[in-house]
Design goal:
There is one protein chain. The chain has one domain: MFS general substrate transporter like domains (Growth Hormone, Chain: A, Up-down Bundle). The C terminus is likely disordered. Helices cover 76% and strands 0% of the residues. The two termini are 16 Å apart. The protein is an all-alpha fold and 424 residues long. It contains 18 helices and no strands.
C-alpha cells in the first residue's frame, strides 16, 4: 500500500522534509491564546480576538501570496514569506501593548501565510493529477509530525522555561526551512504560451484572475463548505485550551492531548490515505465532516483527559479524511495558469476560519458556556458535509476532465532532478 509513495517526485519529499523542520518549531500560534492570557495577563476575549487578527492577516496573505506565486514564481514567494515571518516573530516577542500586539500578529500572518498557496501550487506543478492525494498526504504528514513534536516541546517550554523561547525557536526553524528551500528546491512555475505556440504571454492580471474565480460557483461552494469545517477545526487551537483550563486541565496536559492529533496523522495518514484513495474523493471528504461533527460535539460530555483524548481521536479521523483530499481537489479544479490563486482562495477559507472562529468561539464560551459551543460545532460541521454532498457530481465531473488533460508545460527555469526525478 505504501509502495505508491515511491513514485512521487523527489522534490515532494524535499519539500515535506523542510516542512517538518519548520512545523517542529511552530510553537507560537498553538500557544498564542495562553501566552496572551496567562503570560501577559490579557482577557480571554482579547486573546481570541488576536487569533482573529491572525486569521484576517492570513485571509489577505492567501490572496496576495497566490497572485505573486502565479506571477513571479513559487520559490521566490516561499523564501520571502519564511524570512519575513522569522523577523516578524522576533519583533512580536518584544511587544507588550494591546495595539502593538495586534499590529504585530497581523503583520506576522500577512507575511508568513503567503507561503501556503505557493507551496500547494508547487506540489500541483510537479505531481501528476492521479498522485496528488498521496503528495498532499505526504506533506500533511510532515506538517503534523512536526506539529506533534512542536506541541510537546512548546508545552514544556511554556510550563517550565519561558514563553519567550516559543518565539525564538519558531523563528529559528522558520529560517532553517528558508535555507533548505534556497539550497535544494528549484522553481516549478509553468510557462504560459500563446495558443499558436508562439511567445510566452504575460501573467493574468489580479482583476481578471479573480473575476474568473468569482464565476466558478462549484469551487466557491466547495470553499464555503471548507470554511464551515475550518470554523469548527479552529476551536481545537483557540477555545479548546481555554475550555480545558476552565475544567481544571492545564496547558502542559493540553499540549500532550493536542499532540495526539499530530501523532495520529504522522502514523496513520500515509497508509490510511493510500487506502482511501481507492474511493471517490468527494465522498471521503463528506464522510470526514461527519467525524468532525461527532468529535467536537462529544467534547461537551468529556470532563477528563482520557475522555478529551477520545474526542480528539474521532475528529482527527475526520481531518485525515479531508485535508489532503481537499487540497488535491482544489488542484484538479484549478486551471494551470491560476493554480496558486485557486490555492490562495482555498487557504483564505482557513484564514477566515481563524478570523471568525476564534473570536466567535471565545464569545460563545464566555457568555453561553461549553455546551453551546460544542453543540454549535457539531451542527456546523454537519452542514459542511451536506454542502459537499450537494456539489459532489459537479466536482467529480471536473476532476475527470482535469485528470484526462496532458501534463502542464515545463517549469519557468530548466528542469532539475530535484523536481522531476522519482525517488528510488
Amino acid at each position: 500500500m505504501l509502495s505508491a509513495y515511491r513514485e512521487l517526485p523527489r522534490a515532494a519529499y524535499l519539500l515535506a522534509f523542510g516542512t517538518f523542520v519548520n512545523r517542529a518549531g511552530s510553537f507560537v500560534v498553538a500557544f498564542l491564546t495562553l501566552y496572551l492570557s496567562e503570560e501577559l495577563g490579557y482577557t480571554k476575549t482579547f486573546a481570541t480576538l488576536c487569533m482573529g487578527v491572525f486569521g484576517l492577516g492570513g485571509v489577505i496573505s492567501s490572496i496576495v501570496g497566490g497572485q505573486l506565486a502565479d506571477q513571479f514564481g513559487r520559490r521566490r514567494v516561499m523564501l520571502s514569506a519564511l524570512v519575513g515571518g522569522a523577523i516578524a516573530l522576533l519583533v512580536l516577542s518584544q511587544l507588550r501593548s494591546r495595539t502593538g500586539i495586534v499590529i504585530g500578529i497581523g503583520a506576522f500572518a500577512l507575511v508568513m501565510e503567503m507561503y501556503r498557496p505557493a507551496a500547494a501550487a508547487m506540489i500541483a506543478d510537479i505531481v501528476p493529477a492521479n498522485q496528488r492525494n498521496l503528495a498532499f498526504g505526504l506533506l500533511y504528514v510532515a506538517t503534523n509530525l512536526g506539529f506533534t513534536f512542536g506541541a510537546l516541546v512548546g508545552g514544556y517550554l511554556a510550563e517550565h522555561v519561558s514563553f519567550a523561547w516559543l518565539f525564538y525557536g519558531d523563528a529559528l526553524t522558520t529560517l532553517l526551512f528558508a535555507g533548505w528551500i534556497a539550497l535544494v528546491i528549484r522553481e516549478t512555475l509553468p510557462k504560459r504560451s500563446s495558443s499558436d505556440g508562439g511567445e510566452a504571454v504575460p501573467p493574468i492580471t489580479f482583476v481578471a484572475a479573480f473575476a474568473r474565480i468569482g464565476r466558478d460557483w462549484v469551487f466557491l461552494l466547495f470553499c464555503s463548505a471548507a470554511l464551515m469545517g475550518g470554523l469548527v477545526f479552529m476551536q481545537g487551537m483557540s477555545t479548546l485550551p481555554l475550555y480545558l483550563g476552565s475544567i481544571g486541565i492545564g496547558k502542559a496536559v493540553y499540549g500532550q492531548l493536542i499532540a495526539i492529533n499530530g501523532f495520529m496523522i504522522a502514523v496513520c495518514q500515509l497508509p490510511y490515505g493510500a487506502f482511501l484513495s481507492r474511493f471517490r474523493r468527494i465522498a471521503v471528504i463528506s464522510c470526514g465532516s461527519l467525524f468532525l461533527a461527532t468529535g467536537f460535539g462529544l467534547v461537551r460530555w468529556a470532563d477528563t483527559p482520557v475522555a478529551i483524548a477520545l474526542t480528539i481521536v474521532v475528529w482527527t479521523i475526520g481531518e485525515m479524511m479531508q485535508a489532503p483530499f481537499m487540497a488535491a481537489t482544489v488542484a484538479s479544479l484549478a486551471p494551470v495558469e491560476l493554480r496558486a490563486r485557486y490555492q490562495g482562495v482555498f487557504s483564505m477559507c482557513f484564514g477566515a476560519a481563524v478570523t471568525l472562529g476564534a473570536p466567535i468561539g471565545g464569545q460563545i464560551l464566555t457568555h453561553w458556556g461549553g455546551d453551546a459551543l460544542w453543540t454549535g460545532c457539531a451542527c456546523l460541521a454537519g452542514l459542511s458535509g451536506l454542502t459537499f454532498v450537494a456539489i459532489s457530481r459537479r466536482i467529480e465531473a471536473r476532476e475527470r476532465f482535469s485528470e484526462a488533460m496532458p501534463d502542464p508545460p515545463g517549469p519557468l527555469s530548466q528542469p532539475v532532478s530535484e523536481s522531476t526525478t522519482p525517488s528510488k
